[in-house]
Design goal:
Layout: H1 3-8, H2 10-18, E1 35-39, E2 51-57, E3 60-71, E4 82-88, H3 104-120, E5 129-131, E6 135-147, H4 152-165, E7 168-174, E8 181-190, E9 198-205, E10 209-212, H5 216-221, E11 224-230, E12 236-240, H6 249-277
Parallel strand pairs: 4-6
Antiparallel strand pairs: 1-2, 2-3, 3-6, 5-6, 7-8, 9-10, 9-11, 11-12
Helix pairs in contact: 3-4
């Protein structure tokens, strides 16, 4: 099919491929783009982070840096630390984004990540407490999109999980005599990750057809999107559906089943990379 037809009638162009159960980029409807992850100090751009990861999902490229700082816990949560996620969509990642304060899409993505952290219990905030009512860890999780070609949420959750798996926190004690905190940088422990949430996103075409891991063009042409988050036990952590075409119970169940399969693939990929960078 010609480039001109794709430009003038993009939806009809897609429909002709979808009828043949494939997509213009050659993928089947249920096929993910090539997924890669780099973890830790191999990312020279953010060596100052306490944990970092770069994830590529096709052309979509997301980097996550985690910075750990010490702070006093909130009065009403004396035994809890904080996790502060922030998603950035700078103008360099796609023409659709502008410089300046975070836009609607970036804010929605940040809220989605916060909900995933909370609902999945991937990190229990009590684990971040050092001294009840006195001292706790704050984890600033900055997720920056370097190249946007759809499916930001899957890439962001993946990058966040990989970066958190890379975090090593120094031993902190409070001196009984002075009441001041003492940080031992020579003794570090990995962050306790309780659950491993993985996001799987689908675009809905013509209200009925589901395609997995949509590109930016596919998202624009779709009549809706849905993101399913599951953990390693196959537990449903979150369903994110910002309007658009409704889904039947059967279709939603189909999405959940596919998400559980995708979780195994992502977990295997992370484990393989972590094993390769762990000192023997």
């Amino acid at each position: 099919l010609s480039i001109c037809f794709r430009t003038v009638e993009p939806l009809e162009y897609y429909r002709r491929f979808l009828k043949e159960n494939c997509r213009p980029d050659g993928r089947e409807l249920g096929e993910f783009r090539t997924t890669t992850v780099n973890i830790g100090k191999c990312l020279c751009s953010i060596t100052t982070a306490d944990g970092s990861a770069l994830v590529k999902l096709g052309n979509t490229t997301v980097i996550c840096g985690v910075k750990a700082e010490l702070a006093a816990p909130a009065v009403d949560s004396a035994n809890k630390g904080y996790i502060v996620p922030n998603v950035e969509l700078p103008s360099l990642c796609a023409e659709r984004f502008r410089s300046g304060p975070p836009g609607e899409e970036a804010q929605a993505a940040s809220q989605f990540i916060a909900d995933v952290i909370e609902n999945s219990q991937m990190i229990v905030k009590e684990d971040l407490c050092i001294a009840n009512g006195k001292l706790a860890w704050v984890l600033y999780c900055d997720i920056i999109c370097l190249d946007y070609d759809g499916n930001l949420l899957d890439a962001s959750v993946f990058a966040l999980l990989a970066a958190l798996k890379n975090v090593q926190l120094p031993l902190v004690t409070i001196n009984e005599e002075t009441g001041l905190s003492e940080v031992n940088l020579k003794q570090k422990n990995p962050l306790i990750i309780r659950k491993h949430p993985v996001a799987t996103s689908f675009a809905i075409f013509d209200d009925t057809l589901l395609i997995v891991d949509p590109t930016a063009e596919e998202e624009d042409l779709a009549t809706g999107t849905v993101t399913i988050v599951t953990d390693e036990e196959g537990r449903l952590c979150s369903v994110h559906k910002p309007g658009g075409s409704p889904l039947t119970g059967a279709k939603l169940q189909d999405c959940i089943t596919r998400a559980i399969t995708r979780h195994k693939e992502v977990k295997k990929l992370i484990d393989k990379v972590i094993k390769s960078i762990t000192p023997k």
